[in-house]
Amino acid sequence: MAATDPLPDPDRLEGAPHPRETATLFGHAGAEAEFLQAFNSGRLHHAWMLTGPKGVGKATLAWRLARFLLAAPEDDGGMFAAPPPTTLDVDPANPIARRLLQLAEPRHFLLRRGPNDKETALSQVISVDEVRKMKSFFALSAADGGRRTAIIDAVDEMNPAAANALLKLLEEPPPNVTLFLIAHQPARLLPTIRSRCRELRLTPLPPQDLADALTQAGGDIAPEDRTALAELSGGSVGEAFRLTNLDGLKLYTALTRLFSTLPRLDRPQALALADLAGARGAAETFDLLVTLIDLFLARLARFGVTGTTPPEAAPNEAQLLARLAPYPEAARAWAELAQTLSARARRGKAVNLDPAALLMDMLLKVDETAGSLALR
Q1: Residue 320, CB-side half-sphere exposure with 13 Å CA sphere
Q2: Which one of 4, 47, 135, 237 has the largest count of C-beta atoms within 10 Å of its C-beta?
Q3: Is the pLDDT of residue 164 over 80?
Q4: Is residue 148 within a helix (H) or strand (E), and if so which, with residue range?
Q5: Measured between alpha carbons, how far is 56 from 28 in angstroms, rounded to an integer?
C-alpha cells in the first residue's frame, strides 16, 4: 500500500458492503424482537453485547439498532404519543439514516481500530486513546439532548488499557447513551465488562438465509452449493464470502478427493495442492487451505464420536468420513492432530517458511495418522 493510499475500513470485509450499508439483516428475527421488547418496556439497558461467530451479522445488527434508536421519537408520555414500534426498520430517506450512512451523525460514535503510530497501516488493536476520544465525544455532545449511541467493533480487539477505560465508562454510563459492543469471543473479555452488558447472541445462519445474505453482499452462490457453503462457513456470511471469492468449495472438493487416497496419499495430487498454496500472491489461498484441512479433521473427529453423518460439503464425503473415522479411538486421533496441525503451519508461515512445504507437511501428517489407524 502506498503512503498516500487511504487505509481500509477495519470493520469491513474486503469486496463487501460496509455493515452500515447493508439493507436487510437475515436470520436474526429473535434478537431483533428481544431488543424491541426491551425498548417498548421502557427498560432499555445502556450496554448491549452482540455475540456469536464472526461474520454472522453482528455489526449489521448493531447499525440497525443504532439507526432505530436515533430515529425513534422520544416518548413524552402524553396521550398523543406514538404507538409502540413493531419493527426496527427505518426509512433510508430519513435524515438520520442518511447521516449514519455518511458517518456524519452528531449523536453517534464509531469506535474501531485506528491507524498505527506512523499512520502507514491499521493498528492491530483498539488503543486507549480511541476510547478516550469516545468519552470526550459524549461529554461534548451531551448538550444536544436526545438519545446517543456508539458501536464498538470489535471489543475483542481492545488492548488492556482500552478495556479498562471502557469498563469505567460502563460503570458510570453517560446519560441517554446506548453502547453496542460487538464481541466475536466474549469468553476472552474481562468478566466485569461482560457482566455490565445485556447479551444478544446471534447464531449461525441456515443455508437459505446465508445464501440471501451472501447475494446481498455481492457474492454468487448456486442453489446446489448452499448446503455445502453453509457447512464449510459455519453459517457465517463473512466466511462464505471468503470461500466464494477463493473457490473454497472447489478446494475442499480437491482435498476430499486427495484424502480418499489415504492411507496411501496420492503424491502428485498433494504436490499440486502444495504448489497452489505456495504460488506468488497466494497467501489467502494458503490460509484457506489450512482452514479447510482443519475443518475436515474436525468433521472426521465429530463423525467418529457421534456416528452421525453431517450434510455433505463435497461429493462422497460421507463415505470418506465413515472409512477414516469408524470408531471413537480414531476420532480421538483426528482431534489430537487437528489441535496442533494448523497452528504449526501458521507459525511456520509467520516466520517466512515456504508455504508449499508447510502445506505438504500437513498433508503428510494426515497421511501418517491415517496409516497408523489402518494398522490398528
Answers
A1: 22
A2: 237
A3: yes
A4: strand 148-153
A5: 9
